[in-house]
Amino acid sequence: MTILNIIDAIDRWGMKEPNRPVYIETTQTYTYGELKKTSDAIAAYLQKNIERDRPVVVYGELEFEMLTCFLGASKAGHAYIPIEAHTPKERVDMILEVANPAVIFSVKEWPDLDTEAEIVSLEKIHDICAKSWILDVPLKPVDDSETYYIIFTSGTTGVPKGVQISHKNLLSFVNWELTDFGITQGMRFLSQAPYSFDLSVMDVYPALTSGGSLTPMRKEVINDFKKLFTVLPTLDIEVWVSTPSFMDICLMELTFDGKHVESLKIFLFCGEELPKMTAQKLVERFPKARIFNTYGPTEATVAISGVEITPELLEKYSRVPIGYVKSDTQVYIMNEDQEVLAEEVGEIVIAGPSVSKGYLNNPEKTEAAFFNYKGQPAYRTGDAGKLKDSLLIYDGRIDFQVKLHGYRIELEDIDHHLAEVSYVKQAAVVPKYQHHKVQQLVAFVVAHPHDFDKEFKLTKAIKEELSTSVMDYMVPQKFIYVERLPLTANGKIDRKGLMNEVNAT
Q1: Residue 384 domain-assigned?
Q2: pLDDT tens digits, residue range 415-466?
Q3: For residue 55, is it within any domain?
Q4: Which three-class secondary structure state does DSSP give residue 285?
Q5: Would you say 197 and 343 are in contact if contact means Cβ atoms under 8 Å apart?
Q6: The CATH number of the domain where 264 resides is what?
Q7: Does residue 319 lie in a domain region?
């Protein structure tokens, strides 16, 4: 199925099959008919009260009303900005400063922050949706190169950058996902990633355009292992979308497998590197499911490459490849402005229709990362990689490279080898600085159960095993043992938080 227009494709289900389920919660199921009616009402409200083109903020978690407001904004010609309700006030403030939104739909209670934007409470959202609206002029939805949504990512200077994704960008992504990953009409998707994280786009729009449904997994379940492990075997979903880090947590529950969760047919991973050990466990536990690793930055609309994980693939590659590039997109491996030779490592540069027009109200950062290449919009990812047999191989973040005693070291490379040590379940390595120079490497390790009576003996054993696969200078000098690695709100390992911890003293 080829989608020509996102909004039309979603609305078609609301008109054709209004009782088809779209959002399945434990206590309530919402339908496509309700989604169409409520989003039409939000769109009518916006068209009557707000000038077109100004962005709107939607503040909340994984509520159905969030979808209503996203779609309503799009129908009235507004880009929407999702902000997760647990976002620190300071960050929300910075987003508002950059975006200058016209309206804030406050699905969760709005924090005490000054803004000139109109704040529409959940009660008012319900009032708007209950009202019958008559419009003088037909709705003019977002189309083509107009901005469909804006997602704020972390900036190196601390000021968040608003990535603008157009309707055309989103179409390129959705059509690829609906074509290349075995997704069929009416499938049930897990909705776990916060809407402020573009990984959520991987479940929301492919589900809604293909007549599928979303099953939200709320924060209170995710943050409580007992609740999470109780919920996992009961999930009636077919398509799993998450980061590898969240999957690592789920795999701690031994009944999370194909026997106990028979409905799961497709796994889609994105957002960070998929460790080989995680991939192997999944292949063993879900032998009948299809498992895909995908890759892409927010700036190129969620993902641009993917590969199915098979035992043969895992046997052939020591690091899980990040996929074959989608057909409408080109990837160039570059060193500065020059393409490197075949199979050489360089910076991954993405060109094609899913590349963003740039950062909202930030020409300086836009100019640094976006450019035109061979007649197409292109983006410098900051990721190192190479192309081999048309397959994209990831080689770490360029900005996760450090120099220690003159050696250039890729932190994620050490993580990868540490995770393969028999005593190690999970690991993240960070640099400790002294006078702006890397003084030592510190490894945070989640260890497997072991028989060592002292931590230093465990450390010695890990170092010995690690030294068989990495150079001496890559072996961390200090090991800190933790029960689990901290995750960001988006479910990725919080490397920056760990760096702050070791460099605080």
Answers
A1: no
A2: 988 999 999 999 999 999 886 778 899 999 999 999 999 999 999 999 999 9
A3: yes
A4: helix
A5: no
A6: 3.40.50.12780
A7: no
